[in-house]
Structure formats: structure tokens, C-alpha cells
Amino acid sequence: MGGAGNKTELELGHCLRLPREGPCECDLSLTCAKFVTTPQYAPRLRERLCLERQLADDAQERGWPREVERHHRTSTRLQALFEELGEPHGNDQ
After folding, report:
1. Contact indicator for 67, 48 with CB cutoff of 8 Å
2. Which secondary structure element, helix H or strand E, spans residue 65, and what is its range?
3. Helix 42-62 vs helix 65-85: angle between axes, to the nearest 10 degrees?
4. Confidence of residue 76 (pLDDT cuts 50, 70, 90)
């Protein structure tokens, strides 16, 4: 992850957005083209995946289908990040 650009450390990886490009929103969506992560973040990614699954279950119990969808989308993105990193992600849950 070298290079001449800036990188902002985030909870689950780094944002390679330049300051002139405005504030980083990578942590919000995990789909920003400037978001990158590495295997060192795998434990945090696993924690986040577990949390997203819990939140989806809670939203289901409360009858909030849009929240269920949102948490499922985030879970799917996290699983894709694990696959990109070649890391196990506990897909059995």
C-alpha cells in the first residue's frame, strides 16, 4: 500500500482519497473505490460481520425490512472483502 498519496487509517482498512477530494465515507459504505484493507484488519472485519448479523436479526425481530436489507448488504460486502483477502470469515453463521 505504498505510493505518494495520503492514506487515512479507518477502523476496517484505509482510505486512499486525497484531501482535496473531500471527506472520506469509506467506513460508512465499505464500497468506496478508494477503500482498501489488509489481512491485519481481519479480526476487526470478523467482529463487524458478527455485529452486522446481530443487527440484521434484531431488525428482523422488530419488523424493519429495510434495516434487515441494509445489514445484509454490509454483511455481503464484508464476506467479499474476506474472499479478496483470502481470509476465513465464518460463513457458517
Report:
1. no
2. helix 65-85
3. 160
4. very high
3-state SS, residue 15: strand
Minimal CA–CA distance to 53: which of 81, 72, 78, 30? 72
What letter does residue 34 receive in the DSSP assignment?
Answer: T
Whose grid coordinates read 478508494?
Answer: 34
Of 23, 24, 83, nearest in space to 49 by CA: 83
pTM for this entry: 0.78
Angle at alpha carbon of residue 38, lines to 7 and 53, rounded to 5°: 110
C-beta separation of 24 from 17 below 8 A: yes
What does the pLDDT average to over 55-62?
97
For residue 43, give the 3-state DSSP assignment: helix
Q: In the prediction, which pLDDT does 86 show?
A: 94
Element (DSSP H or E) covering residue 35: strand 35-36
C-alpha cell of residue 89: 470469515
